[in-house]
TrEMBL record, chain A:
Domain of life: Bacteria
Organism encoding this protein: Dyella tabacisoli
Known function: Part of the ABC transporter complex (TC 3.A.1.6.1) involved in sulfate/thiosulfate import. Part of the ABC transporter complex CysAWTP (TC 3.A.1.6.1) involved in sulfate/thiosulfate import. Probably responsible for the translocation of the substrate across the membrane.
Gene Ontology MF terms in the entry: ABC-type sulfate transporter activity
Alphabetic keyword roster: Membrane, Sulfate transport, Transmembrane, Transmembrane helix, Transport
Localization annotation: Cell membrane
Cited Pfam families: BPD_transp_1
Protein family: Belongs to the binding-protein-dependent transport system permease family. CysTW subfamily.
PANTHER family attached to this UniProt entry: SULFATE TRANSPORT SYSTEM PERMEASE PROTEIN, SULFATE TRANSPORT SYSTEM PERMEASE PROTEIN CYST
Record domain ABC transmembrane type-1: where: 57-259
Recorded topology in the membrane: Multi-pass membrane protein
Protein name: Sulfate transport system permease protein CysT
Gene: cysT
Transmembrane intervals: 12-34, 54-83, 95-117, 129-153, 185-206, 238-262
Assembly and binders: The complex is composed of two ATP-binding proteins (CysA), two transmembrane proteins (CysT and CysW) and a solute-binding protein (CysP).
From TrEMBL, chain B:
Protein name listed in UniProt: Sulfate ABC transporter substrate-binding protein
Sequence similarity: Belongs to the prokaryotic sulfate-binding protein family.
Principal subcellular localization: periplasm
A GO BP annotation: sulfate transmembrane transport
PANTHER family: SULFATE-BINDING PROTEIN
Coiled-coil region(s): none
Subcellular location field: Periplasm
GO CC, alphabetical: periplasmic space
Entries under InterPro entries matching the protein: Sulphate/thiosulphate_BS (IPR034408), Thiosulph/SO4-bd (IPR005669)
UniProt source species: Dyella tabacisoli
SUPFAM superfamilies found in the cross-reference section: Periplasmic binding protein-like II (SSF53850)
Residues spanning the membrane: none
UniProtKB/TrEMBL annotation, chain C:
Source species of the chain: Dyella tabacisoli
Protein name in UniProt: Sulfate ABC transporter permease subunit CysW
CDD domains named in the record: TM_PBP2 (cd06261)
Keyword Membrane part of the UniProt annotation: yes
Spans through the membrane: 20-43, 68-89, 101-122, 142-162, 251-271
Lineage: Bacteria, Pseudomonadati, Pseudomonadota, Gammaproteobacteria, Lysobacterales
């Protein structure tokens, strides 16, 4: 069942990985879980069933889902154009893709607000048209899409680059239309990468705080994200904040595992189909 | 006037050059909108202390939301003194035995060297004709105020509105609740801190009126131009008393008690009071206030203790989880 | 415009029009979505002129925040680099029980809200936390000081390097390394001569991302910093402080420091692009299934 180990360093690398993870990730999370369990079951249920908590969770997860779907669609397009076409300024744009990673979240929030506020660079034109972005749930979506944008592009790009064009040509020579080639051949091959990008963008957007609070408006039940609710709770008592944190964590963890599973399936499917 | 500290500083340096001076450092953990005030205070106090004792003193500042700052001190932020937005945030520290329970009696005037009150900042010309509290609940009006759960300053705003309604003829709890609920229905953006709200109103142009501390409103007017904003003083408002205290356990551990106490006493000195007034806080000393005629218009005020017992009770009733504020947004 | 050169079908005008349309759409989208926020930062930062810009970033607090941010990144990034390589090695070169779980744990910090990751370390090292009282007795300060800033930064950026390496090393397989071993290379020789050259681009990209995120994190750092100006405020915290300040030049200062941070990020991105371009012939053979 085990492959004969020709390669060295199993004990060292695994041991180091486990020790590092244990100290940096698992120990602190154990403290969090223990703190959360200080809240009794009835209190926990009360916290989780409160309309305000539900609204905040809905906005954080729902918003992150929409933002991640948006990023998958737009990210795929951007990756495609970057890989397949040559045009002046391409390298510059390509470097720009990583900007949301590099720009500090608070700065992103301030800058986005400066653009989309009613007196902002774009806001002054959009608001008279009835499109208000800053201080509405739309602003939350925008900030979430911004911070998660590079994930999809960056996971899809290398796969697209490595993709064998012969397959496409073969499909074309067998009489497939462009659309058929894309949906039947290219998309399945991209699926694992798209899912990875989707999962990362989603996880990032769910927990995002710094950039969102500047543009959100933060009105309870309407534009209040779950991390803000956690910040409010931190000032009252840690148990509530910890419980909310654990719930968010479990939820996103499950999401990530589901996506990883989907990825494995789609990966196998892609292998079989090629 | 501005040269005096500088000259003092030079003299002190000369005088001390031979004597052996030691550097003392003091950490003042404060709330958000006091940074301009303590910048002035720290400079003046440091040069005074150096001229009197020969020690060079460095005052480090930490600013943030009052409640968050209080939490941080409770978790070990080594504050020698705390200068927060409201007494409850220091009471919490006393409960953790970081300072004695009678901290508010150790300095004059409830340990608040300055006061302020809640006023309305409106756009030039007062286009919505806002004169007093009832105007704030007009349908369609937009009021900017921060979230009282995360901002200490915002709790004073909230209590001012509640107190106004309670003080009206025939006013009672139910009416106050309705008034405050109507007011918060008009709030389109709840920032996490007072400064965030000020930016939303002044820089982003959101809202018709900003509920603000008087010092904050005057500062905005000074920095961003009188041609843009006007201050409306309501008929009655709350007396905001931001308290100060030495954190006993930390000061004793650092050996900074003497300088920490002197620092806070300096706030009550004529020079400290003058700097407070310069930064638009209402000084306790009447003679200092008299030097700024017209800056602080007289108005009727009520205190937290008068209407709500004390800050602990107010906190529990209004701002704790499940309190009055939380219920505003559930019933709509 | 040179498009897909070896597609055998003749390029019809509809296809060309579609290409131009797609390119235009992407260029427009990215200009509004990405370039505009960047422009805002620089325009606002330079609003008071170059002199005011230099003046504000030369302030004691601003300089201190830059030093601190660089220090934190300089500790956190190399640690996560080593971790990333070790984790990727273990995950891709060996079979063992619980591998999937380990992979999930490596990704875990991605699904923790930054606010919570700050709280984690307060719960451990705060005065009321697990180790707080003991640390206090022994005069060790972790929370509200540099160590906690480093810890949360490590936590936040932990998955980046491993995330970049694992799929690549999986795709590459271990044949070359096994060959090196069979030819008598020691473990470290194999690592430095075979493995490292094969993964260097992914490694560099992972480090760049890790570094950018380490320098830019706000929410988590804000919880454990204590906000002592000039001592425990990193650049993002300093930016927020300046943004919320009403001293003269504070507003400009916020954007000036922000543009510095953005500039730093752009510089690393530019270096990466340059390297890729310069060594593109050497990179290509290593991308799985390369041309």
């Amino acid at each position: 069942m085990y492959r004969r180990r020709v390669l060295p360093g199993f004990g060292l690398s695994l041991g180091y990985t486990l020790a590092y993870l244990g100290l940096i990730v698992l120990l602190p999370l154990a403290a969090l879980a223990l703190k959360a369990s200080g809240l009794g079951l009835s209190q926990l249920l009360q916290l989780l069933s409160s309309p305000r908590t539900l609204a905040a969770l809905r906005l954080s997860f729902g918003g992150a889902l929409i933002a991640a779907v948006f990023n998958v669609l737009v990210g795929l397009l951007v990756a495609w154009v970057m890989v397949r076409y040559r045009f002046p300024g391409r390298r510059l744009l390509d470097a720009l893709i990583d900007l949301p990673f590099a720009l500090p979240t608070a700065v992103a929030g301030i800058a986005l607000t400066a653009i989309y506020a009613p007196n902002g660079w774009l806001g002054q034109w959009l608001v008279p048209l009835g499109i208000q972005i800053a201080y509405t749930p739309l602003g939350v979506l925008l900030a979430m899409a911004f911070v998660g944008f590079p994930f999809v592009v960056r996971t899809v790009q290398p796969v697209l680059e490595a993709m064998d064009r012969d397959v496409e040509e073969a499909a074309a020579s067998l009489g497939a239309t462009r659309l058929q080639t894309f949906t039947r051949v290219i998309l399945p091959m991209l699926m694992p990468a798209l899912l990875t990008g989707f999962a990362l963008a989603l996880a990032r957007a769910v927990g995002e705080y710094g950039s969102v609070i500047f543009i959100a408006g933060n009105i309870p039940m309407r534009s209040e994200i779950a991390p803000l609710l956690i910040v409010e709770k931190i000032e009252q008592e840690y148990a509530g904040a910890a419980a909310l944190g654990v719930v968010m964590l479990c939820f996103s963890f499950v999401l990530l595992i589901v996506i990883a599973q989907l990825q494995r399936w789609s990966g196998r499917w892609a292998e079989r189909s090629t | 006037m501005r040269k005096i500290p500088f000259v003092l500083g030079v003299l002190a340096t000369l005088a001390v050059a031979s004597a052996h001076a030691k550097d003392v450092s003091l950490l003042n953990v404060s709330y958000d909108p006091t940074r301009e005030l303590y910048r002035d205070i720290n400079q003046a106090f440091a040069s005074q202390w150096q001229s009197q004792h020969g020690d060079k003193i460095i005052i480090e500042m930490s600013h943030g939301g009052s409640g968050k700052q209080s939490r941080s001190v409770a978790e070990g932020l080594p504050a020698d003194v705390v200068t927060l937005a409201l007494a409850y945030d220091i009471d919490v520290l006393a409960d953790r035995h970081l300072l004695s329970q009678d901290w508010q009696q150790r300095l004059p005037d409830n340990a608040s060297p300055y006061t302020s009150t809640i006023v309305f900042l409106v756009r030039k010309g007062n286009p919505k004709g806002i004169r007093d509290w009832p105007d704030l609940i007009k349908p369609g009006l937009q009021v900017i105020t921060p979230n009282p759960k995360t901002s200490g300053g915002a709790r004073w705003n909230y209590l001012a509105a509640w107190g106004y309604a309670l003080k009206q003829p025939g006013g009672d709890e139910a009416k106050a609740r309705d008034f405050v609920r109507a007011l918060y229905k008009n709030v389109p953006v709840l920032d996490t801190g007072a400064r965030g709200s000020t930016n939303t109103f002044a820089q982003r142009g959101i809202g018709d009126v900003l509920l603000a501390w008087e010092n904050e409103a005057l500062l905005v007017q000074k920095q961003l131009g009188k041609d843009k904003f006007e201050i409306v003083t309501p008929s009655i408002s709350i007396l905001a008393e931001p308290p100060v205290a030495v954190v006993d356990s930390n000061a004793d551990k650092h050996g900074t008690r003497a300088v920490a106490e002197a620092y806070l006493k300096f706030l009550y000195s004529p020079e400290g009071q003058a700097l407070g007034a310069k930064n638009f806080y209402r000084p306790r000393a009447a003679d200092v206030a008299a030097k700024y005629p017209g800056l602080f218009p007289p108005l009727k005020t009520f205190t937290v203790n008068e209407l709500f017992g004390d800050w602990r009770k107010a906190q529990a009733k209004f701002f704790n989880d499940g309190g009055e504020f939380d219920r505003i947004h559930l019933e709509r | 415009m040179r498009t897909t050169a070896h597609v055998s079908r003749p390029v019809s005008w509809q296809r060309r029009a579609l290409h131009v349309l797609l390119i235009l759409a992407v260029v427009c989208f990215m200009s509004v979505f990405l370039l505009l926020p960047l422009a805002v930062v620089f325009v606002e930062g330079l609003r008071g002129g170059i002199a005011a810009f230099i003046d504000t970033i030369g302030q004691r607090e601003a300089l201190a925040s830059m030093r601190l941010t660089l220090l934190v990144a300089a500790i956190a990034v190399p640690l996560n680099l080593i971790f990333g390589v070790a984790a990727a090695w273990a995950m891709t070169r060996f079979q063992f029980r619980g591998k999937a779980l380990l992979g999930a744990f490596i990704d875990l910090p991605f699904s923790v809200s930054p606010v919570i990751s700050g709280l984690l370390y307060v719960l451990l090292f705060g005065a009321q936390g697990w180790f707080g009282p003991w640390l206090e007795q022994h005069g060790v300060r972790i929370i509200f000081a540099v160590p906690s800033l480093v810890l949360v930064t490590i936590f936040i950026t932990l998955p980046f390097v491993a995330r970049e390496l694992i799929p690549l090393m999986q795709a590459q397989g271990s044949e070359e390394e096994e060959a090196a071993r069979v030819l008598g290379a020691t473990g470290w020789q194999m690592f430095f001569r075979v493995t490292l050259p094969n993964i260097r681009w992914a490694l560099m990209y992972g480090v760049l991302l890790c570094n950018a995120r380490a320098m830019g994190e706000f929410g988590a750092v804000s919880v454990v910093s204590g906000h002592i100006r000039g001592l425990t405020t990193t650049m993002p915290l300093e930016i927020e402080m300046l943004y919320n300040g009403y001293n003269e030049y504070d507003h400009i200062g916020a954007f000036a420091v922000a543009s510095l941070l953005a500039l730093l990020a752009l510089l690393t991105l530019a270096v990466k692009t340059l390297l890729e371009w310069r060594y593109s012939d050497q990179i290509a053979p290593h991308t799985p299934g390369g041309h």
